[in-house]
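Posted in: Protein Modeling Q&A

I'm a second-year student putting together a small comparison for a lab meeting, and my supervisor asked me to include a predicted structure for Retrovirus-related Pol polyprotein from transposon TNT 1-94. I've never done this before, so apologies if this is the wrong subforum. The sequence is pasted below exactly as I got it from our records. If anyone can share the structure token output, I'd also love a short note on what stands out.
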Amino acid sequence: MEAVLIKNDRFKYLSEVAPPPETKKAYDSWKIEDSKTNVDLILCNQPSELKLVKNCLTAKDMWEKLERTYQSKGPARKANLLKRLLQLKMETNYKIWIFSSIKI
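Accepted answer (user: helix_wrangler)
Welcome! Here is the predicted structure, written out as tokens:
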């Protein structure tokens, strides 16, 4: 997800590099770019994850919410990830070589 934002020159809207400007004209331009960043974030997430960020006002808010949710290193998060890993099933149209390159 971060790579897509960097490629599209939108990562700056998630940091302090591009905070909301003070003037109306500059703010309107910033808001358009922030909205495009929101769209990039939405497109990179699963539909089930969208409920987590539906009330976020800016791309930075959305990014921070996702970061707090998924950067957890606690035992509950590890158990959840292990459960999801064990429940993965290969779809019929997938090829095994796709999965052989995954590094854990």
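A couple of things worth pointing out for your meeting: The chain has six helices and no strands. Residues 1-101 form one domain.
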